[in-house]
Design brief:
globular; alpha/beta; two-stranded antiparallel sheet; Rossmann fold; 34% helix
């Protein structure tokens, strides 16, 4: 296979992306349109297909250059916005395992139906997207299709990231939301995450704020999902080889929370903690180091 030009990615240096064959795509999930971008490698046949899954109230933009870099390394890539996020249709900030799995099922149907699924399938998920990747690989409908996983900054339980006051307030507002929805009105509250919480690099904070990929409010209707979600229940069922990456400077989901997910895995697995990185490691200090770990894992199982 003809090799792409350029050398290894080291430190925090951002290599150029050759940006070959990038295609905006859209597909239906239920009655709503999901939008994203698909890329093919410029050199040779794809080694596999990598699907990127973003986190809570974020969008595919948070992956920055990673989907393009991975195509430079010989993979087809798909990064899309879950329904209710980014450019996709649907009620803003509404999340659940069922909705996420529905979107992924629609994405795989799109890839298979249009001949865009090239070689083995791998999933790369960040934060809630990482937990979603585990849920996909644990689901008997999808597990046979998944060759490998890369899970970045996963949490065990969302409720562990909330204070007692926040949990109590969420529960109380959920009761009021049940009534408000009968009146065709959905309650929402401010989202606690700020760009400063996601990055160790001040320049990355400024750039992310300019990109504006974070939503500002979260639906109270998500409370049952927030209350019951536990990533370890999925992790224990995963058979696909899984790399878990944590940021040593992540104060949003501290590495110990991600390590609890890693410890629940019984498959072939590897733990990496990138010392200089915060939560959103795709744009932060040492993003190229994170990428190198990711693509090395993908290559190992391609």
């Amino acid at each position: 296979m003809e090799q792409a030009p350029g050398g290894p990615r080291t430190g925090t240096q951002r290599p150029p992306s050759y940006r070959a064959a990038i295609e905006p795509i859209e597909f239906q999930s239920g009655s709503e349109t999901v939008r994203g971008a698909y890329a093919l490698p410029r050199y040779g046949a794809p080694k596999g297909t990598v699907v990127f899954l973003h986190g809570l109230l974020s969008s595919r933009e948070e992956f920055d250059e990673f989907p393009l870099w991975v195509s430079d390394e010989g993979y087809a890539s798909l990064a899309f916005d879950f329904r209710g996020h980014g450019q996709s249709e649907g009620p803003r900030s509404l999340v659940s395992v069922e909705r996420s799995l529905g979107d992924i099922e629609a994405a795989l149907r799109f890839l298979e139906g249009t001949g865009r699924l090239k070689g083995p399938l791998s999933l790369v998920g960040h934060s809630l997207g990482g937990v979603t990747a585990l849920a996909v690989a644990a689901d008997p409908r999808f597990a046979p299709k998944v060759r490998s996983l890369v899970v970045m900054a996963p949490f065990r339980r969302i409720r562990d990231e909330l204070s007692f006051v926040e949990r109590a307030g969420y529960a109380a507002l959920y009761g009021a939301d049940l009534l408000s929805r009968r009146l065709k009105f959905d309650l929402s509250i401010p989202y606690k995450a700020r760009y400063e919480d996601l990055f160790a690099d001040p320049a990355a904070v400024a750039r992310a704020r300019q990109m504006g990929f974070l939503q500002q409010r979260v639906r109270v209707a998500n409370w049952p999902y927030v209350k019951n979600l536990d990533a370890t229940t999925f992790a224990a069922k995963v058979k696909a080889p899984t790399l878990v990456v944590a940021g040593g400077k992540d104060t949003f989901i501290v590495p110990a929370r991600s390590k609890a997910v890693f410890d629940s895995l019984t498959c072939e697995k590897e733990w990496v903690e990138v010392a200089k990185s915060g939560h959103s490691m795709m744009m932060d200090h040492a993003s190229a180091e994170v990428f190198d770990h990711m693509v090395s894992w993908l290559d190992r199982w391609a």
